[in-house]
Amino acid sequence: MDLLEYQGKQLFARHGLKVSSGRAVENVEDAVAAAAAIGYPVVVKAQVLIGGRGKAGGVKLADDEAQLREHASNILGMDIRGHTVHTIWIEHASEIASEYYAAVLLDRSAKKPLVMFSTEGGVDIEEVAERNPERLIRHHVDPLAGLAREEAEAIATQGAVEPDVVEQVADALVALYEVWDTEDASLAEINPLIVTPEREVRALDSKVSLDGNALFRHPDNQSLSDAENEDPIERRAREQGVQYVKLDGDIGILGNGAGLVMSTLDVVAHAGGSPANFLDAGGGSNAEKIRQAVELLLANEAVKAVLFNIFGGITRCDEVARGLIEAFEVVKPEVPFVVRLDGTNDVEGRRLLQEAALPNVHAARTMNEAAEMVVALAAGRPVGAGA
Ligand code: GDP
Ligand code: MN
């Protein structure tokens, strides 16, 4: 679950990280009132779940009410790479002497928390990592011990921060680690972590992702999920208790069981296709679940073809076939389907599909064959015999 910048900063503040105070508003008049209360100059910041807002024109400084009105009205409603701005954050503008980068995340391959730090913050950190990897300090933390104060100081020193702010940077790293650890975050990032001309270290931006599966341990954080910014289909899926993830391609994918779904994504990618979404119908899928799943997959308009990959175990292939036939009565899909049924009652399932003679449904025997067929269909190329 990703947080908006201002929500992340509120978490930061709870753990003693310094941030500028500000207000989240949704219209120009409230922005004017907020700025008057905070005091000019202020910075107007688009609150969307995507980075690079500055480059996209979603972060602007305002010295007076006229400028504030101009920026607030431009940024509200702005589209930043597919994300519409509903909320802006107004905070007192900071003066910047230096911009650093700091992050805590889980390094899965090392099976340890990883602290990353650089004095080359503010810009694309990926670029620093690529061009000057020695400028990005990577430090693994013993998860049982946590990040000790001396370790944090060593990171700051190794990163060559200006000596007079080593202590404050260390404080910020310890606090950031505490945010990551105690809030069950998967990522806690500050870019930039600034030093002001008065030599104060402060988080100017935040990027925080919380582990949705641990939310039950954090009642305070439950209200942070931003319904307006959540993908509406993902929300519907969650409400129906189905695992659904939106991607960027044009092939809809349904499987039963996480492992099968993951390998289906791989096989489709290998065949040159690009998944638009995937949906795990789970074990024991029945006809009703399958109908809901088809509706969810097709709710995404980017989908040009759908791959159904079912391995029958507890799930019976004849039930899946019935669900698909029912779904076609209700939904009447306009895009082709490739169906691979294997396992429990697969013969019966295929027979049902064949009898129903659904328009534009193609049967495949193996996963590879299914992937190749669906990639061809999504590209508008014809394939062999239908079901
Ligand atoms: P991002 O582009 O989405 O990462 O948004 P940021 O919050 O990081 O803002 C982008 C850039 O705007 C920062 O790197 C700063 O250079 C600049 N910026 C943001 N807030 C302030 C501020 O209070 N004062 C000044 N001078 N610049 C700011
Ligand atoms: Mn930033």
Description:
With 387 residues, this protein is α+β, with helices and mostly antiparallel strands. It is 36% helix and 25% strand. It has 12 helices and 18 strands. It has helices at residues 5-14, 28-38, 65-75, 125-131, 149-158, 166-182, 232-239, 258-270, 287-299, 317-331, 346-356, 367-378, and strands at residues 22-25, 42-46, 59-62, 79-80, 83-84, 88-92, 98-107, 112-118, 137-140, 185-195, 201-203, 207-210, 243-246, 251-255, 275-280, 305-312, 337-343, 361-364. The strands form 4 sheets. Strands 7, 8, 9, 10, 11 and 12 form a 6-stranded antiparallel beta sheet that branches. α8 (258-270) crosses α12 and α10 (317-331) packs parallel to α11 (346-356). The chain is elongated. It starts with a helix and ends in a 9-residue tail after the last helix. Guanosine-5'-diphosphate binds at residues 43, 45, 51-54, 59, 93-94, 96, 122, 191-192, 204-205.
